[in-house]
Amino acid sequence: MSRIEPVEAKILYPTYLPEGYEKVSEEDIGIGTELIYGNEEGDAIHLLQITDSDMEESFDTESTEKKSCIVGDCQGYYLDSGGTHVLIWEKNGVYMKITATLDEETMVRIGSSLK
Length: 115
Prior knowledge:
- It is a single chain.
- It contains one helix and seven strands; from the N terminus they run E-E-E-E-E-E-E-H.
- It is mainly beta and 115 residues long.
- The longest helix has 9 residues, at 104-112.
- Strands 1-2-3-7-6-5-4 form a seven-stranded antiparallel β-sheet, with helices on one face.
- Strand 1 and strand 2 form a beta hairpin.
């Protein structure tokens, strides 16, 4: 069985962020890129763009509420574990993940704004 090479993808940046957030860091993490946005209150939005098709992730489904949603024109899932929220979806072979304490509507708006 041959290994599937990672997708070559350009980094997507949100055109919408909640008021007060700005980019804190951008890092190549080997399997993709992590962008972090923060505000003066210390809140953070972590945006992962994973291009390695071998990446696997799991979630605790007993204490996590999972809800189907649409991010842009892609099927996504909003996960609420009682504090930290995660929005996941795949677009053009790139696995996208936003982790924050923001509500579903705001996170979907951020994800839908990626360009």
